[in-house]
């Protein structure tokens, strides 16, 4: 129930109507019986600075940022935590000492399903399909895990080179390689963690996959296959992985857990307490899969 003392959280974006964040955050807040509400705020890029001033004026506790604000918001914040500086993007903002502080929980969300696996990450070679914004969080996450190397695969050499150059001043120690798509068969033959960060295969184009079924035969038998897409579940990419003769020895992960865990990390930061991750996950599972 909204009252005169209800505290505000939310997500800013343009568009933002499709966001599932209000669903999972409000489910958690209801379970905790806290007088908070999490709202979507559609904000045009030219109004971003005004929005921050308005949020401060009305006492917004914190908010998430999604496209197109993840990078544009950075110069407007008083402080940016090192992980967000390294990635070059902010997805979570909180208030401290009357200042807006930016951080990034996408990395924590990405590594959450991985860090408890029985793996020698120092012997793990990761291959990342795509070189957009999501790939940046994945590269940082693989580095946090201690992967031996990270190879980013893309179609345009210039964009790949720009991607690699953008990490030169990073505080993270990254063994980063870049390759174009036509080298993929050779690359994945030595890959232990394969991550799709592209939108290929996302609803409604569910019959598409970033790589064809035949390429999965080149992967080592213990490869972890991770698709950041969470709808449909499984994607065609993950279906190909599961149809392989080596399926039994592989771990296949979709993007739902990353979505849940990055949100839980943000909510925990705002509330300064543990949050019911299982409730957040269940709310999304019910919405997406029934």
TrEMBL record:
Reactions this protein catalyses: shikimate + NADP(+) = 3-dehydroshikimate + NADPH + H(+)
Domain of life, source organism: Bacteria
Protein's UniProt name: Shikimate dehydrogenase (NADP(+))
Cited NCBIfam families: aroE, PRK00258.2-2
Subunit structure: Homodimer.
Residues where shikimate binds: 19-21, 66, 91, 106, 230, 262
Gene3D superfamilies listed in its UniProt record: Leucine Dehydrogenase, chain A, domain 1, NAD(P)-binding Rossmann-like Domain
Binding residues for NADP(+): 130-134, 228, 255
Organism from which the protein derives: Calothrix parasitica NIES-267
Record lineage: Bacteria, Bacillati, Cyanobacteriota, Cyanophyceae, Nostocales
One Pfam match: Shikimate_dh_N
A GO term from the CC aspect: cytosol
Claim: Oxidoreductase is one of the keywords in the record: yes
Pathway: Metabolic intermediate biosynthesis; chorismate biosynthesis; chorismate from D-erythrose 4-phosphate and phosphoenolpyruvate: step 4/7
């Amino acid at each position: 129930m909204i009252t005169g003392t209800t505290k505000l959280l939310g997500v800013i974006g343009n568009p933002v109507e499709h966001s599932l964040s209000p669903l999972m955050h409000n489910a958690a807040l209801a379970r905790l019986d806290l007088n908070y509400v999490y709202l979507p705020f559609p904000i045009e890029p030219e109004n971003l600075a005004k929005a921050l001033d308005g949020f401060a004026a009305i006492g917004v506790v914190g908010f998430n940022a999604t496209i197109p604000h993840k990078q544009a918001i950075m110069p407007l914040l008083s402080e940016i935590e090192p992980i967000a500086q390294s990635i070059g993007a902010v997805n979570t903002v909180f208030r401290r000492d009357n200042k807006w502080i930016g951080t990034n929980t996408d990395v924590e969300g990405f590594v959450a399903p991985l860090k408890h696996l029985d793996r020698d990450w120092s012997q793990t070679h990761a291959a990342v399909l795509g070189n957009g914004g999501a790939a940046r969080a994945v590269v940082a996450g693989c580095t946090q895990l201690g992967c031996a190397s990270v190879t980013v695969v893309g179609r345009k050499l210039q964009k790949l080179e720009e991607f690699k150059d953008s990490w030169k001043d990073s505080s993270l120690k990254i063994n980063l390689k870049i390759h174009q798509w036509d080298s993929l068969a050779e690359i994945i033959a030595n890959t232990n963690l394969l991550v799709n960060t592209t939108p290929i295969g996302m609803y409604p184009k569910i019959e598409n996959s970033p790589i064809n079924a035949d390429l999965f035969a080149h992967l080592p038998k213990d490869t972890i296959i991770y698709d950041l897409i969470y709808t449909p579940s499984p994607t065609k990419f993950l279906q190909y992985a599961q149809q392989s003769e080596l399926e039994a020895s592989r771990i296949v992960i979709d993007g739902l857990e990353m979505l849940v865990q990055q949100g839980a990390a943000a909510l925990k930061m705002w509330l300064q307490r543990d949050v019911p991750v299982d409730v957040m996950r269940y709310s999304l599972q019910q919405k997406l899969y029934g």
